[in-house]
Amino acid sequence: MPTAASVACEDIEVAEYVQKACNVPNKFRLYTNNDVIGVELGGSLKNVIAIASGFAHTMGLGDNCAGALLTRGMAEIVRVSINLGANPSTLYGLSGMGDLIATCSSPMSRNYTVGSMLAKGKKIDDILKELGSVAEGVKTSKAICELAKKLDIEVPVSSAIYEAVYTDITPQALLEKLMNRKLKEEERYV
Q1: Of 190, 174, 187, 177, the residue nearest 52 (C-alpha)
Q2: What is the CATH number of the domain that holds 52?
């Protein structure tokens, strides 16, 4: 199946070298980027949102909820990444939005699977044993919450996933907690 990805390096000539060396016509297309921070954060933080996506899908919350989760999750990714020096436009490219959409819409994603199993009431230790592989969003949920606290940034979706992974909160209580937060204006980054 054809796909595309970002290759990031502060030295754009190195990125271009990798781009040319790894390009496979009609199969694999690489785009260069010199925003290493943005590419790395987009690629890692999306895993937490993928857990939320699997969770919501399994709970049968519908397409509008899925769209809201992806959008609000993306806002969290952008907030954290900007505070760490990323270029926000990077996050709307392949390593941010592209990776987020692919991972959050695929039942083949390990992180999506973790969310799905959490929504069914399974415990994280049992889920990880059953998976037999790493689901990066599990540890990343803790890391993003700790980082957000240090930076004084709100990350409610990521915080909800942290709670789902590390506490005994029920799926319904988690949903209610997210939906009953204080009302606010939507951020604008462009």
Answers
A1: 174
A2: 1.10.1040.10
Strands 28-33 and 3-8: parallel
Same domain (yes/no): 77, 151: yes
Judge if 40 and 28 occupy the same domain. no
Run of H or E including 7: strand 3-8
What 3-state class would DSSP assign to 184? coil
pLDDT in tens, 10-43: 999 999 999 999 999 999 999 999 999 999 999 9
Note whether residue 184 is domain-resident: no
Q: Consecutive sets of 10 residues in the chain, 190 residues long: mean pLDDT of each?
A: 96 98 97 98 98 96 94 96 96 96 95 97 96 96 98 97 94 91 85
Range of 117's domain?
36-179
Please say if 46 is a catalytic residue. Answer: yes
106, with CB counted inside 10 A (0-12, 13-18, 19+), is: middle
Rounded CA-CA distance 174/65 in Å is 14
Q: Among all chains, which residue has been given the structure tokens 């290493």?
A: 36
- Name the active-site residue from 46, 129, 149, 182: 46
